[in-house]
Amino acid sequence: MFLADQWQDYEVLDCGGGEKLERWGDVYLRRPDPQAIWPARDPSLWRKAQAHYHRSEKGGGSWEFFTKLPDRWVMNYKNLRFYVRPTGFKHTGLFPEQATNWDWMTGLVSDRVKQGREVRVLNLFAYTGGATVACAKAGASVCHVDAAKGMVAWAKDNARLSGLADAPIRWIVDDCAKFVEREIRRGKTYDAIIMDPPSYGRGPSGEVWKLEDSLYPFVKLCMQVLSDKPLFVIINSYTTGLAPSVLGYILHLLACQRFGGKVTWDELGLPCTESGMALPCGATGRWVSE
After folding, report:
1. Could you say which DSSP state residue 90 is in?
2. DSSP 3-state assignment of 253?
3. Model confidence at 105, in pLDDT bands (50, 70, 90)?
4. 132 CB-near residues (< 8 Å, 6+ apart)
5. For 17, which DSSP code?
6. pTM metric for this prediction
7. Over 80: is that where the pLDDT of 202 sits?
8. Per-residue DSSP letters for 55-96?
9. Which of 36, 89, 181, 223 is buried most deeply by CB count within 10 Å?
10. Which run of H or of E encompasses 171?
C-alpha cells in the first residue's frame, strides 16, 4: 500500500460502520466511507465531530453542523498549503491520501531540476490542484486542466497560498480529452502526466465518460503528448472494483513498451490512529523512466 503517513494537520482518528472520523487541522468531520465495513472501535470518540455528512437514499446527501465552522481554513503538508471546506458532495477539496503521490512526484521533479533540466507537467482532471501545487513547488512548469471553472479557481487560490502566484502554471478550463487532442495538433509535449479521471462524467457538450470504457483509449491518446525523454506518468482511480493492477497494466502496455522504465501499482491508504490499521482510499498506477 502507498501510505500517506507524513501528515501533521490531518488524521483519521477512527473508522468503521461505513464512516470515518477525521481531524482537519482543528476541525473534526464525520464522513461516509464505503471501505470501513467493520465496527468503529471507540464510539465515544465520535462525539468530537463538529459536522456529519449524511447520505441520502435518493443519492447525494447533506451536512449536519454541530458547531459553526469557518467558511474555509488552511491545511499544511510540509511546504504546501491548501484551503479546505465542506462541500455539497461530502468532499473538502483535498484528498489527503494523495500526499504519498505528491512526495513521489516531487522527488522525481526535484532530482531532474537539480540537473538543470526543465520539467513540464500536464495535470489532467486536476481538481483543486494538490499535484499542481506540489510539482510547481518542486520546480516544474505545470499545465493544470479541469472542466470545472470553480475547481480551477480554487486551485489558483491554493497556488497563491503556497507562494506560487508567479509560478509557471497554465490554468485551463476545458474537457481533458479535447485539450489533449489540441495539444497533439499543436505539437506540444510534456515530461510528465498526472491524471485523476472520474468513474463517470459528462463533458461540456454532453460527451459521456465511463472509466472502464474510456480510460485505456484516453491514456493511449495522452502518450502522444509525452516528450522524447519523459519522466513519469501517474493514474489515480477511485472507481470501486477497479484493481490497482489494471492501472499498472495499462501503463505497462502503453508506456513501458514505448519508453522502457518501470511500473508500480498499489492501493492508496491513510493510517487510522485508533486501530493502527490503514484505511484503503483508492488506487494508483505509476510509471517512471529509468
Report:
1. S
2. helix
3. very high
4. 121, 123, 126, 142, 144, 155, 158, 159, 169
5. T
6. 0.94
7. no
8. E-TTS-EEEEESSPPPS-EEEEETTEEEEE---TTS--S--G
9. 36
10. strand 169-173
